[in-house]
Amino acid sequence: MDILNLISRKEELFKKDISKNEQELRNIVSSSTFLVLGGAGSIGQAVTKEIFKRNPEKLHIVDISENNLVELVRDIRSTFGYIDGDFKTFALDIGSIEYESFIAQDGKYDYVLNLSALKHVRSEKDPFTLMRMIDVNIFNTDKTIAQSIAKGTKKYFCVSTDKAANPVNMMGASKRIMEMFLMRRSKDIVISTARFANVAFSDGSLLHGFNQRILKKQPIVAPKDIKRYFVIPKEAGELCLMSCIFGENQDVFFPKLSEKLDLISFADIAVKYLKNLGYDPYLCETEQEARELMKTLPQEKKWPCLFTNSDTTGEKDFEEFFTDTETIDVSKYHNLGVIKKDLEVVNENLDFFENQIFGMKAKRMWDKEEIVKLFQKMIPNFLHKETGKYLDGKM
User: Fold this and answer.
1) What's the pTM value of the predicted model, to 2 decimals?
2) Is the pLDDT of residue 81 over 90?
């Protein structure tokens, strides 16, 4: 399936930037060692492939998903084959004792790339998953940076999100706070990051859900009022690698807006997707109607669809990669922009945040409201969009 066509593009976004810098990328990667955390997720796999095909001296991949690691290895062997360097995968939880032992016994890497994250807006639906999101997105990140500093790592890269710019949901706000922790650590190690758009057909995404609905013969559901920027997995990997290798301390890379990168609605992609498979979308009024029509319509080469307006918590009305208070450089690369960080970090605020979260955990008791209030203290302009409705309550 031509993903570029589905997101209304004809060519890859970073082709010129990669081509211009390819020789230097190969020279650096082939003489360096890498650790990729969260390397079996969609973005992690894309980054791993970009590193692997440039023949690194050592490439170790850590992820909690054993199955995804198996598929990553099969994919790499089937596409690229083998490298001279040390390529290994490890099914480990970054927050575990086993991972700490793994780092203690090796841990020598030139570059550490952290792609692990709880990325779904729906993760804030309950206070327990929300607390895990704070652990994964903020504290595990801070811990792995501290480990990298102790082991003499040259560079640390971490993925942020476009939703960290003027966040309206807890996921975006957690990444914004993560960026504050990054800035504090950047005094002791070179750190760069990236904010980018939705990765088309990444695991767990709505577009990936389209594939699942077709396989399971279920209706296609999508919001018709939400438009997003999309990159393909390969572009996500290229963006991360460019930031990791070439980003200066505190730099945040992002896709530069141009005629090649335009907003498109999920409903429009759904229509293109179905037509690509030979089906005409049939618009339904209710979930029940869509489920019932699944019994008959596909035989007529029509597919039941339910396109509605979004009314769930945390959905951002528009996307932005930077705020009006951030300094950006759009001249250095063809289709990559760079936020030049000058964020003043108040260590007392970060200490306060840690103490509050650790206090909640010590009591084994917390609720969403107190976490939201804590986030608002950390991000004064954080306008949390709470509707009382969540994606898990919809088809």
Assistant:
1) 0.90
2) yes
In this structure, what is the dihedral angle of CA atoms 159, 160, 163, 165, given to the nearest 10 degrees? -150
Q: Are the beta carbons of 242 and 14 closer than 8 angstroms? A: yes
Q: How many C-beta atoms lie closer than 10 Å to residue 387's C-beta?
A: 11
Alpha helices by DSSP H, listed for the chain, are 3-6, 15-30, 42-52, 66-79, 97-105, 127-134, 140-150, 170-185, 206-215, 233-246, 266-276, 287-293, 347-363, 368-378
Asked if 28 and 57 count as a contact pair (C-beta separation under 8 A), the reply is no
Q: Which tens digits make up the pLDDT trace of 170-193?
A: 988 999 999 999 999 999 999 999
Long-range contacts for 21-26 (Cβ within 8 Å, ≥24 apart)?
A: 21/242, 21/246, 24/245, 25/54, 25/241, 25/245, 26/54, 26/55
The rounded mean pLDDT for the chain is 91
SS3 state of residue 299: helix
Question: Whole-angstrom Cα distance, residue 355 to residue 350?
Answer: 9
Burial environment of residue 257 by CB neighbours within 10 A (0 to 12, 13 to 18, 19 or more):
middle
3-state secondary structure of 327: strand
Could you tell me the maximum CA-CA distance found in the chain, to the nearest angstrom?
Answer: 64
pLDDT at 388 over 80: no
Amino acid at 110: D
Average pLDDT on 365-381 reads 94
Radius of gyration of the chain (CA): 21
Q: How many helices (H) and strands (E) does the chain have?
A: 14, 16
At position 335, the amino acid (one-letter code) is N
